[in-house]
UniProtKB/TrEMBL annotation:
Pfam families, per database record: Exonuc_VII_S (PF02609)
Full protein name: Exodeoxyribonuclease 7 small subunit
Species, as recorded: Acetivibrio saccincola
Top EC class, one word: hydrolase
Self-association and partners: Heterooligomer composed of large and small subunits.
Amino acid sequence: MGKEKKTFEQSMNELEKIVEDLEKGEMPLETSIEVFQKGVELSKNLSKILDEMERKITILMEKEDGSIKEENFEN
């Protein structure tokens, strides 16, 4: 079967681990570059997910009469 898609949280945890490992400075240069590259890819994917979620967010606004209306979230 194909590779399972990671959740946002799993990807974020993986990115945090990469940053932690790189900050230690204990890896050989070549390995550090490979790990850094993976971190950049994760960062791009996380950013894309956040952008998609931002478009889906709806803000519930309470009207003066107490009723609720939905508005699409816009920048």
